[in-house]
Write a structure and sequence with these properties.
The complex is a heterodimer of chains A (287) and B (409).
Chain A: H1 2-32, H2 39-57, H3 61-82, H4 92-114, E1 130-132, E2 137-139, H5 140-162, H6 164-174, H7 176-181, H8 186-208, H9 218-233, H10 238-258, H11 266-277
Antiparallel strand pairs in A: 1-2
Chain B: H1 2-22, E1 31-37, H2 48-61, E2 65-66, E3 69-77, H3 82-96, E4 100-103, H4 107-120, E5 123-126, E6 143-145, H5 150-163, E7 168-174, H6 177-192, E8 196-203, H7 212-221, E9 225-229, H8 232-244, H9 247-250, E10 252-255, H10 260-266, H11 268-271, E11 275-278, H12 286-297, H13 309-328, H14 333-342, E12 345-346, E13 351-355, E14 361-362, E15 365-370, E16 383-389, H15 391-394, H16 398-401, H17 404-408
Parallel strand pairs in B: 1-3, 1-4, 4-5, 5-6, 7-8, 7-9, 9-10
Antiparallel strand pairs in B: 2-3, 11-15, 12-13, 13-14, 15-16
Classes of the chains: A mainly alpha (287), B alpha/beta (409).
Chain lengths: 287, 409
């Protein structure tokens, strides 16, 4: 019973990661209609940049938490301005293929330079150690990850659903010409959105760096799961991706406990089932 | 009458074959080695490009020629997939006349190419895989298992840990041929030494990055020792999770297969104190230091990493193969295998190593412990060598191997 509670908590921790990543993916898809396959690679870049900052400039975790997403977000802006922008008019399959190619290039470059077995990134000093709960030992850093992920997820949701900027964004995706006619710079909004989505991925990467090794493969390990989360939650639904992210983390944790060999497929089984019953996803709207 | 005719016929058929075998020399005028390894995946740092480099260094040291004929090295990425490995092996042998396959890291790919080398009579020099089945019940006359096997790892680390008082064990096992075999072998050693095995959890590999849930199960098992029957990035990630969840405060980790690249990637802070059994450590003696530094500073070694035991084993196995080709004056697999078994291995990697009729290369192994950050004097200064395990104790005897072709003889 104790172990079960432990697994539930672990599921929650993993789920908050899934939520953080699928959130960025959902925002980009919801507003730009681009299936951003490069999300995993950008997540990895966030972790890599944090590691590079520590390695070569001696910049620690806390500044990196802001710096790395800023750097990677800027790269995202450049990608959007110079390349992705040209694909908006086309079928979104083109965006998917382009970002997939981008993933291979980014991962390839890091792999070539830093090998595959990863590099250590220490947990910041303040968060070392843990709390002994009645049913498990909870590392402080993991608790911190859950709290931050929840705050970021909720904050993003608020901005998009409840603010003026958010309403411009949503309107811009519905009818860009009309919104532009009101004097709003729609292309700039798209750039900001993509940059923000990318920065979110990079932020998750920095959060992940002390937990996993910082290695070029860390994004591709996760991206398939995150895509499944987004599909189950409903492409473009922000609330959907947050809730399913957390929920699937818990389900995966429980599978690891009861029948480990199935843990790597359980999410995809659920995805298949959901697609059969509700093709638009649990929280998705049929277009 | 009928009998005489058939005997005559047989003789007629046999005679030219015999003549051919004698005068075979180097077929198609070139000795070709194919390094089939994991170039980009989980094991690419411990084998991968470093294995290709090691093979090339062995060829360089041979002057690029054996018995007057050029030596060529080709390489490919098997992506840790058995089907890719067997397809590549078949293509290499059929279309490119590759004479020997090298490395084959990961047991599943090694087991997949074994029937092919057996059928086509080509030689496989395995340096990366660990499963004991290679020279056990699945053995064939054309395979050499060169660097280490799971039995050696289990006996080295497993026995030592039990002797130091680690009586109860729980395993975190990679769910494929290699991991399961390592768990079985170590369980047997633990039980034989008077310990007991409380259980195990098997995780999908590759594909698992988060080990916290397995670590938690290991923790709640209450075992004194948590045996890690996994390799490469899996080991690294499981050690990381174990440290994070405070497992190392009340229980001890025993990494059953640890490569120096794993230690490098973990950092000594996390890895300190771990026991490991290894076939090679660069800082062992003058010869190993000399070779390792050459490897490290080679222009092809972009990461400037020290060689792992797999990579050192690749060099040594290729070199031994070439020596055998030179001595046999042919690349005919049967003749070369006979020479490889006949000649001892003496280089920086092994002293008086011998390849048995089962194909297992028996040589000394080392039990090492990872240094603390204070003990380490610099980069790659990671191991204290606790003892040398002599070949006769490090590897199972031919009889114990249950290899059908070795037992018949």
């Amino acid at each position: 019973m104790q172990a079960l509670f432990g697994q539930l908590l672990l599921g929650l921790i993993n789920g908050s990661f899934y939520a953080l990543l699928s959130l960025g993916l959902s925002i980009i898809f919801g507003l730009l209609n681009v299936v951003n396959f490069a999300h995993g690679a950008l997540y990895m870049s966030g972790a890599m940049v944090a590691w590079l900052l520590a390695q070569y400039l001696g910049i620690g975790y806390w500044p990196a938490l802001l710096l790395a997403p800023a750097v990677v977000g800027l790269v995202g802006v450049v990608i959007e301005r110079t390349m992705l922008r040209r694909l908006y008019q086309l079928d979104n399959l083109y965006g998917l293929l382009f970002t997939f190619g981008l993933t291979l290039v980014i991962e390839g470059l890091f792999h070539e330079q830093y090998g595959n077995s990863g590099n250590p990134y220490p947990v910041p000093e303040v968060l070392q150690g843990g709390v002994r709960l009645p049913f498990m030992y909870l590392p402080e850093y993991r608790a911190w990850v859950v709290v931050v992920a929840m705050i970021v997820c909720f904050g993003s949701w608020l901005v998009i659903e409840r603010t003026k900027l958010g309403s411009y964004l949503r309107a811009g995706t519905e009818n860009p010409r009309l919104v532009q006619a009101f004097g709003i710079n729609v292309p700039l909004m798209f750039t900001i959105t993509y940059g923000f989505g990318v920065a979110l991925a990079a932020f998750a990467g920095v959060m992940a760096a002390p937990i996993y090794q910082v290695s070029p493969g860390m994004g591709s390990n996760l991206i398939m799961v995150v895509f499944a989360v987004v599909v189950i939650g409903g492409m473009g639904s922000i609330l959907g991706s947050i809730l399913t992210g957390v929920g699937l983390g818990v389900i995966e944790g429980l599978t690891r406990y009861f029948y480990p060999p199935a843990s790597s497929v359980v999410i995809f089984v659920i995805m298949a089932l959901v697609l059969l019953v509700r093709p638009a996803g649990l929280f998705g709207r049929q277009k | 009458m009928k009998k005489t005719v058939s005997i005559a016929l047989l003789l007629a058929l046999a005679a030219p074959a015999g003549v051919l075998a004698q005068g075979k020399g180097i077929s198609d005028g070139v000795v070709k080695l194919g390094v089939l390894t994991d170039m980009t995946g989980y094991y690419s740092d411990l084998a991968g490009p470093g294995s290709v480099l090691a093979a090339k260094m062995a060829v360089e040291d041979f002057g690029g020629k054996v018995d007057g004929k050029p030596i060529q090295v080709v390489s490919a990425d098997h992506q840790l997939k058995a089907d890719v490995a067997s397809n590549t092996a078949r293509k290499w042998i059929d279309e490119q006349q590759v004479d020997a396959l090298v490395d084959l890291v990961s047991s599943s790919t090694a087991l997949a190419v074994m029937p092919i080398v057996n059928e086509k009579k080509r030689i496989a020099l395995f340096s990366g895989p660990g499963t004991t089945a290679i020279t056990g019940d699945k053995c064939n006359p054309y395979t050499v298992h060169y660097t280490y096997n799971n039995w050696a790892l289990a006996n080295g680390t497993g026995r030592e840990v039990v002797e130091q008082g680690g009586k109860s064990w729980f395993f975190i096992t990679a769910d494929y041929a290699f991991g399961k075999s390592l768990e079985e072998d170590t369980s047997a050693v633990v039980k034989a030494a008077g310990g007991k095995v409380l259980g195990s959890v098997r995780f999908p590999s590759p594909g698992t990055t988060d080990f916290s849930s397995y670590v938690l199960q290991a923790q709640s098992s209450g075992a004194q020792i948590i045996g890690l029957a996994n390799a490469g990035q899996d080991t690294v990630n499981s050690i990381k999770a174990a440290t994070e969840y405070g497992l190392t405060k009340s229980q001890k980790l025993a990494g059953l297969l640890i490569f120096i690249s794993d230690i490098h990637s973990l950092g000594l802070q996390t890895a300190q104190g771990l026991y490991a059994t290894t076939a090679f450590y660069w800082d062992h003696d003058d010869a190993s230091r000399k070779w390792a530094k050459r490897f490290q500073s080679h222009p092809d070694n972009k990461k400037k990493a020290m060689p792992t035991m797999v990579q050192a084993g690749v060099y040594s196995s290729v070199r031994h193969y070439l020596e055998a080709v030179k001595a046999a004056h042919t690349d005919d697999a049967d003749a070369v295998m006979a020479k490889m078994r006949e000649l001892p291995v003496n280089d920086f990697f092994a002293q008086n190593g011998r390849i048995g009729p089962d194909g297992l290369h028996r040589h000394d192994m080392y039990l090492v412990q990872v240094k603390t950050p204070k003990e380490s004097k610099g980069p790659w200064d990671y191991y204290k060598i606790l003892k040398t395990i002599p070949a006769s104790q490090a590897f199972p005897s031919v009889e114990a191997q249950k290899c059908p072709i070795a037992v018949k003889k």
